[in-house]
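Long-time lurker, first post.

We've been arguing in lab meeting about whether thiamine diphosphate would sit comfortably in this protein at all. Half the group thinks yes, half thinks no, and nobody has a model to point at. So I'm putting the question to the forum: if I give you the sequence and the SMILES, can you give me back a predicted structure of the complex? Inputs are below. Any interpretation is welcome too.
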Amino acid sequence: MTQYVHQPAFLTGDEFSIDTFSLLDPEGELYEGASEPALERDHARRLYQAMLATRILDERMLAAQRQGRLSFYMQCTGEEAAVVGATAALNDADMIMAQYREQGALMYRGFTIDEFMNQLFGNELDYGKGRQMPIHYGSRKLHYMTISSPLATQIPQATGYAYGQKLAGDGHCTLTFFGEGAASEGDFHAALNMASVHQVPVIFFCRNNGYAISTPAIEQFAADGIAPRAFGYHMHVIRVDGNDALAVFEATTQARKIAVEKNQPVLIEAMSYRLAAHSSSDDPSGYRSKDEEEIWRAKDPLLRLKKWLVKKGWWSEEEEAAQQESLRKEVLDTLKRAEKRSPPPLESLISDVYADVTPALQRQLDQLKRHIRRYPDAYPKGAKSLDLDVDTATDAQGDA
Amino acid sequence: MPTMNMLQAINNALDIAMAEDEKVICFGEDVGVFGGVFRATSHLQDKYGKARCFNTPLVEQGIIGFANGLAAQGSVPVAEIQFADYIFPAFDQIVNETAKFRYRSGDLFNVGGLTIRTPYGGGISGGLYHSQSPEAYFTHTPGLKVVVPRNPYQAKGLLLAAIRDPDPVLFLEPKRLYRAAVGDVPEEDYQLPIGEAEIVKDGSDITLVGWGAQMEVIGKAAELAEEQGISCEVIDLRSLLPWDEDTVAESVFKTGRLIVSHEAPLTGGFAGEIAATIQERCFLYLESPIARVTGLDTPFPLVLEKEYLPDHLKIFEAIRESVNF
Ligand SMILES: Cc1ncc(C[n+]2csc(CCOP(=O)(O)OP(=O)(O)O)c2C)c(N)n1
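Top reply:
Settle the argument with this. Predicted structure of the protein with thiamine diphosphate, as tokens:
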């Protein structure tokens, strides 16, 4: 209903401020007035263990990258509570469309260390067949859409996927993760608009970790974060302390209820900090201070949840130490196995471009095989796939 | 003469252009204080201030739309798209707006000041989304210029020419060579012509044409061929739109044979355009079919990248086939 006023009054949005929902204080105590979410012992342990396992996998794999065993790696460090907390609030069959820093979600859903490793090394067991850079995981079984590098493209896809879920009436929703940087893309705005117009059961989960590579949030947007954008699209929104796994869990639990019961989209903005470098190719000392990082290191999301669990008698330092040790060993053992496995076969170059290999692609592969047979030394992976003996083969100069 | 790698040469060109003309403005994702993820814009913010060198929000369609408006106003934007793989969100702004501004307005308005810089190409273990060579999408677009340098000297001279060119230029930088290609680069200001190919090496038996990062492997293939007594003429197209038909045709009149090589997939690739044109102009002089040595008709792989890429050995084989046709 339009109200007419007769003096010009411009609004900037500063009239609203969006509060941050938080349950646990840094000591792992519930804030006054906070109620504990309905989280059973085993569920809480599963949540924490996935956070811990993600941290350890990240530490180990970054080290492996530094040793030159892996071309590239990206850590989730500092954001485990946001990612795993949200995932733990979903039904395991709900779809997740992630950005790239959300290995914690897969860890929670039971992606094995072996499965992680096969993708990281792009070997013959990698579901993605060695086509994408490390960390671009996907799992149909675990309802985790394969990662695509172009940012924000997954966000409108999540709207579409969730619309299909609504039509299918299977009671599932889709949650899509993205960074505050990616929320600048046109795709983000298109996704929110379509979701609210079409009443779609989708949860837009923004990990606001303060940086997009080197670009700080203040150079990414002028407003109070991402959350207020929901107003423009008439959408439910909540801002949550992204380092508080319980708060993230509770917020996402309620968001999921809105999504599946009312078929309405929800935006969640989780406030956190990217403790690690953007990726193994990045050096954050060029754009932010160690002091700033230290402030956030003190708010480590793992520590906070652990303290709460220990107080409840649901976890102990002994269990923690044992779990850390066995995980480190598993990661190392699995890594050694994965890096020794064969590369994907040469045929994987032309499969999956279309449902069926076209005659043109087959010709191109046949030609490539003839070429590799002539120069096996120059293409050790292709030669291996063709069972050619690289060492004794003719010299790369050929026999012209 | 100082030696520079390609990034230093690009940085030096931007520095010269910004010093000379305060209308030159550099921006893009992470371009500001960090100097870009590859460091092509290092120190420019320090030197010229935040108003002329800055980070944009993460939105390529916004970057180019903004750049179009800025150029229409009379400024000289040099917009960076962080990887050529991520230029597609800006495709509409480039293809429908940048390229058609002058034409649709009857030259009332133009965005001739605009230069779009972007790293392209494979060979860096980048897999699907950090390896693409999207030039052919843009060479199909009248109104754009498309330029690709092959080494630091070319990069500086061509980039300075692009920035001062009266038409919008898409400047594709071979990222595999950013640090790998090092060479003599004059400190002073100089320009290389846009629209002119360069004969990198004279030869009489066969013409080899390429651009950007392919020039390195074409050079190696030519060496292999010379060892077999085959004399190769090597041409760097440098500019794909417009492209220098005359230089290539003249060469093929002389050699009677042509191989074109690019990393992008075969079908719809720019080699097809060159082959068709040269076939029209040189039909009676050709002694063997024009050959294309390119990537496969698939997206770019990761682990089997070496197998996928058109390398010196594949080009060498194509030379032998052509000569023995
Ligand atoms: C369309 C597109 N543009 C640029 C990039 C390059 N890029 C990769 S990650 C990144 C920063 C993303 O920041 P944010 O969304 O905040 O997520 P975070 O890394 O902080 O988790 C950029 C610019 C890309 N992958 N896709």
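For your lab meeting: The first helix of chain A runs from residue 41 to 66. Residues 392-400 of chain A have pLDDT under 50 and may be disordered. Whichever side wins, do check it experimentally.
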